[in-house]
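Fold it.
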Amino acid sequence: MLGFTEDSAVEQPVIETLVRAGWTHIPGPELDRSTNDVLNERSLRDALIRLNPSIARRPERADEVIYKLRSVLIGASAAGLVSANEQFMKWVRGEFSLPIGLNDEHETVRIIDFKNIGANEYVVSNQVTFTAGPERRFDVVCYVNGIPLVVGEAKSPVRPAVTWIDGAIQVNSDYEVNVPSFFVPNVFSFATEGREYMYGTVQMPVKQWGPWRTGDPIFLGLRAVLDTVSSMLTPAVLLDITRNFTAYATDRRQRMMKLICRYQQFEAANQIVQRVVEGKIRKGLIWHFQGSGKSLLMVFAA
């Protein structure tokens, strides 16, 4: 079908949906970055100064933080992608401190403001080229304060033999293998051909990628995909997932893996916490079936 491509039929509607959800669209070629850079360092530096009064007093300290983050990115090849991802996420979630306070006292470094989400910069970009290694071009990248937290791969909706699985395999078996540094800051990736939307974490087998439901499946196809995008990738939800709904573990072969919530765990854990905050101790019931992730739900709620 002439003119009906993955760009016009899937990628652009996803971008437009994200703009309506609160993101600013900047095409990949117009980003203020070198194609060798994982981070948009100018945006990150501005955020460090904006969110950390001690760094604002001495802006050169922002460069010290960025240097440490770069070292984590470089270490992906030696430490392994999942291990490097865990280390980077500790920085993102504000679990590290540096002697940046008065009299060189240690203070927590804030890279993202999780309480006042309006204090962050949200940029969605398409056709982002990365050349630190084999050149790759990512269809959709969501940057928060210059950090690429989400990568999306769009496929053509008009070829029956092509599905979201092809996009997920490209992320899992090509991008993460050949340009792992770009995925060190990754919270999750998603793939869609305009019919289904699936997401997974770094090095998660494609068969474990899952859907994000938005309620009753009233709509199917692209409409359902865009509803999912506007739900899961709204800034508030993405930051909640980033801060509270990922975990790291080892499998039976002692390989590190990154876990992420499914939609039912996200909803249930937040409702559990809300009931505790409101003091509704003896109210509430969650129905589970075998293999639905009860143990992980308790981890997220805790």
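The beta strands are 24-25, 97-99, 106-108, 122-130, 136-144, 147-154, 188-192, 197-200, 246-250, 256-260.
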